[in-house]
Design brief:
Blueprint lengths: L4 E4 L6 H12 L2 E5 L34 H13 L4 E5 L2 H9 L9 H10 L1 H11 L1 H6 L5 H14 L3 H4 L11 E5 L4 H14 L2 H9 L5 H4 L5 H7 L5 H23 L6 E3 L2 H7 L2
Parallel strand pairs: 1-3, 1-4, 2-3, 4-5
Helix pairs in contact: 1-14, 2-3, 4-7, 5-7, 9-13, 12-13
């Protein structure tokens, strides 16, 4: 196996098109780094690529829970099967766990997590500021998932999660890491939203709601806003506005994540990637 290539990118940045072009030119095999594309049936809202030669897409049911630990195991297995792997996606937490190591904390406590989710992000962030200020400084006040985990670790162990994450300080995976740079991301997101809605996103959500659908998957940006519309909380115009707003917020947070990784080389597209790999 040659040195793996990793291409990170914001939602709507065109990272998959760029990765496919690089894969075709260099003979790479594609591996997804996306926390929602793993779910079968969540096709339109996740903008799954049309090509079917990706690994780690459609590998579990929407009712299942998928996490960084499982991704690391799956990614290592997929990489071992590829002569020249090319990872592509926007889930920075998965990349961090894969490249820097996985924090091994206490097992998830479903009952405690349900209680913490009910408290909401502001109260969890305030609690984290009291018991683990370093973690509170690193976690965005609205990042409910990471806040829940940080508070859960403290309540289960009595120790701050920041003291347990020292293994994240050094990268252990040697790879060529790139990230797509887009100045017109807001316009691209608006166009993406219109395409997804025209492709039948609302009907996809109705179908998913008719069968078991896990809380983690249904909270994904693009899906939770449609659920609100289907449940009659707001009209179609407001649904589209919310999708655009929340997707743009997600894209901003993705860039903030990517900038934390010093190994990332920012590029404009596949030509630049191939040029740098020569």
């Amino acid at each position: 196996m040659t040195r793996p290539i990793i291409l990170l990118g914001q939602t709507a940045s065109g990272k998959h098109e760029a990765a496919e072009a690089v894969a075709d030119r260099l003979g790479c095999e594609l591996i997804s780094v996306d926390s929602m594309k793993v779910y079968r049936g969540m096709d339109i809202g996740t903008a799954k690529p049309r090509r079917r030669d990706y690994r780690l897409i459609d590998i579990c049911d929407p009712a299942e829970s998928y996490n960084a630990g499982r991704f690391v195991r799956d990614a290592r297995a997929a990489m071992a099967e590829c002569a020249r792997p090319l990872f592509v996606g926007g889930t920075a937490l998965y990349y961090k766990a894969f490249a820097y190591g996985l924090f091994e904390g206490p097992q998830a406590d479903p009952a405690l997590r349900e209680e913490l989710v009910t408290l909401g992000a502001p109260r969890l962030h305030a609690e984290l500021q009291r018991v683990d200020p370093p973690a509170a400084d690193k976690i965005h006040p609205n990042d409910l998932k990471r806040l829940v985990r940080a508070v859960e670790v403290f309540r289960k162990t009595g120790e701050p999660i920041s003291s347990k994450q020292t293994q994240f300080g050094r990268r252990t995976l040697e790879a060529n890491v790139f990230a797509i740079r887009r100045e017109d991301i807001k316009e691209r997101i608006a166009g993406r939203t219109k395409r997804l809605l025209a492709a039948g996103l609302v009907d996809e959500v109705k179908g998913l709601l008719a069968r078991p659908w896990g809380k983690e998957a249904r909270r994904a940006v693009g899906y939770r806003e449609v659920i609100g519309h289907v449940e009659g909380l707001y009209d179609a115009a407001e649904m589209e506005r919310l999708i655009n707003r929340n997707t743009h917020n997600l894209a901003r947070h993705q860039v903030m994540w990517f900038k934390r990784f010093p190994e990332v080389v920012w590029v404009s597209g596949p030509d630049e990637i191939c040029e740098r790999l020569r």
